[in-house]
């Protein structure tokens, strides 16, 4: 049996090379902007717990008689400020998610037509992007609800003060976390990689596209299992390579900017304002340069991964083939 996901590994390289080279600064810049919303693969750093209290000298202890035993509950103003902050963060996150959802269609259309036009594709596809946005919100909410509910059930005796924390229950909950995360990741990933192209082909909504795609994924489930495994490996390797290249690029720009920052340090003895201004400018330029480098590195990687998925989709169902001409050209 021919494994399309295996055959497409090399073909996707040829397709990405044909799309990105010869180098065109305008095309790469527009794709880098798209990557800002669809090409990131970062994670959150682990939470760090712990710390210690400084010890006093000798046998003396600080006088804490003037400190109240309990802090007063936050008032209405404090709660309003906290709620406003969380509301702003939530709105910004949803806005970013909405733009990213529409940009998924912009990216696929760019590969389909081999021409990057952000405003044109946005105006054509933003309604479908809104449907993808809604799906992602619902999927994320369900995932968090299941994981949060399971965690709350494990911690409930500790939260209500009627028992101690159970390590055994936590170990029983870990498989639930893993299964839910894997299923959620597969559904979200298949929606982005396969259902979005089907929505474009069929000019349909998301649920309708899933109904169209479902017979293909179930009828050729072995192909998609192989794709899921190989795609995970490819994304892992690509993430490592992207991190290495980005770090090397950041070091390259960090050296001259570091020298520039040292000039600011030297000026601190003469003018604090000028010195700190130069240091702040050096830091700002370094951060911006690192972001730009990361986005430019993501362009070929995400282009390759998206072509890889489009090739597998077209091999399993010719009706959903968005890149038939490019497929024929690279396989001649």
TrEMBL record:
Keyword Magnesium among UniProt keywords: no
Keyword terms: Membrane, Transmembrane, Transmembrane helix
Transmembrane segments: 79-108, 129-156, 168-201, 224-253, 273-299
Keyword Transmembrane helix: yes
Superkingdom of the source species: Archaea
InterPro entries, alphabetized: DUF7544
Protein's recorded name: Membrane domain of glycerophosphoryl diester phosphodiesterase
Organism: Halobellus litoreus
């Amino acid at each position: 049996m021919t494994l399309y996901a295996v055959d497409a590994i090399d073909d996707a390289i040829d397709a990405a090379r044909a799309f990105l080279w010869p180098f065109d600064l305008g095309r790469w810049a527009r794709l880098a902007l798209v990557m800002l919303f669809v090409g990131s693969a970062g994670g959150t750093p682990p939470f760090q717990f712990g710390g210690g209290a400084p010890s006093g000298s000798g046998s003396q202890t600080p006088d804490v008689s003037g400190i109240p035993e309990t802090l007063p509950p936050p008032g209405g103003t404090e709660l309003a400020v906290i709620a406003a902050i969380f509301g702003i963060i939530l709105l910004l996150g949803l806005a970013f998610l909405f733009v990213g959802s529409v940009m998924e269609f912009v990216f696929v259309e760019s590969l389909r037509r081999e021409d990057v036009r952000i405003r044109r594709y946005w105006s054509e596809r933003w309604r479908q992007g809104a449907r993808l946005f809604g799906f992602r919100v619902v999927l994320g909410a369900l995932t968090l609800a299941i994981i949060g509910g399971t965690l709350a059930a494990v911690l409930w005796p500790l939260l209500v003060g009627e028992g101690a924390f159970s390590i055994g229950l936590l170990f029983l909950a870990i498989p639930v976390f893993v299964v839910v995360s894997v299923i959620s990741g597969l559904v979200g990933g298949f929606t982005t990689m396969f259902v979005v192209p089907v929505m474009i082909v069929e000019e349909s909504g998301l649920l309708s596209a899933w109904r169209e795609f479902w017979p293909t994924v179930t009828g050729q489930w072995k192909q998609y299992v192989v794709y899921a495994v190989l795609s995970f490996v490819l994304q892992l390797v690509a993430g490592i390579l992207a991190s290495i290249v980005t770090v090397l690029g950041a070091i390259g720009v960090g050296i001259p900017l570091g020298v520039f920052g040292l000039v600011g340090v030297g000026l601190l003895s003469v003018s604090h304002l000028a010195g700190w201004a130069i240091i702040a400018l050096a830091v700002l330029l370094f951060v911006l340069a690192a972001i730009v480098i990361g986005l430019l590195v993501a362009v070929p990687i995400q282009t390759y991964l998206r072509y890889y998925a489009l090739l597998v989709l077209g091999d399993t169902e010719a009706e959903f083939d968005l890149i038939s001409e490019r497929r024929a050209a690279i396989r001649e």
